[in-house]
Amino acid sequence: MTDAPVALITGGGSGIGAAVARRLLDAGHRVAVTGRGEARLRAFASGLGDPEGLLTLVGNAADHTEVAAAVEATLKEFGRLDTVVANAGFATHDSVAEGDPAGWTEMVLTNVLGPALLIRASIDALRRTRGRIVLVGSVAGFVNTPGNIYGATKWAVTGLAENTRREVTQWGVGVTLVAPGRVETPFWEGTGGLPPGDLLTADQIADSVLWAIDQPAGVDVNTVVVRPLGQPN
After folding, report:
1. What CATH number corresponds to the domain at position 208?
2. Can you give the residue range of the structural domain that contains 222?
3. Where does residue 103 rank: exposed (0-12), middle (13-18), buried (19+ CB within 10 A)?
């Protein structure tokens, strides 16, 4: 167990992050997950039976000091870091012309600054293990949607993934952008219900993340776009 690979996942207490954590634990990885809500993290760990290889860390993905502390805590607990998954993010579900700006700052900081902070805090450890950075983007980061500020943040994540890859590939660190379409997760809370049509599950997106992580040495899968059948855009 002491040689098992280690992953750090932001926003890992629910949704896609939690699904990735479960899949990695099942595959024999040791996993640290961060989140803002201590109760949610505690419930997540309890639901898994408080496994020995799981570390939960309360922290804000958009705060440099707290992200750096999460990386340090992971290294202290497990001794290495092989994968980081920048998953924390949310949407205000409004538009640039008619929305409420009060929620935009936190969304932009979490969705755009958060992944950059995780990369910065973890890159030295990832260079030592020739590890992988996984950024959870969105189809909204490839397809324009009228007035959608959340989509604009995910366009930024799409750019960040390739910009990062061009820098870190020289050090043997891989970068994968996983861009889901519609997924049945807490993302839709506050919108009046799930969107119409078929939706992916968080576990299906987690399978894509693990597939990218499990590629043979020297193989760098860079962009994975995953939509449910029936989603045209």
Report:
1. 3.40.50.720
2. 6-226
3. middle
Digit-coded pLDDT (tens) for 95-150: 999 999 999 999 999 999 999 999 999 999 999 999 999 999 999 999 999 999 99
Predicted TM-score (pTM) of the model is 0.94
According to DSSP, residue 215 is labeled S
Does residue 154 lie in a domain region? yes
The answer as to whether 11 is a domain residue is yes
Is 209 a domain residue? yes
- Structural domains of the chain, count: 1
What tens digit of pLDDT does each residue of 137-191 get?
999 999 999 999 999 999 999 999 999 999 999 999 999 999 999 887 666 566 5
Please report whether residue 108 resides in a domain.
yes
- The residues annotated with a catalytic role in the active site are 150
Sequence-separated contacts (24+) of 215-222 with Cβ below 8 Å = 215/174, 217/130, 220/165, 220/169, 220/174, 220/175, 220/176, 221/174, 221/176, 222/161, 222/162, 222/165, 222/175, 222/176, 222/177
Q: In angstroms, rounded to a whole number, what is the distance separating the alpha carbons of residues 118 and 158?
A: 15
Residues 143/231, Cβ–Cβ less than 8 Å: no
Best CA proximity match to 177, nearest among 134, 212, 143: 134
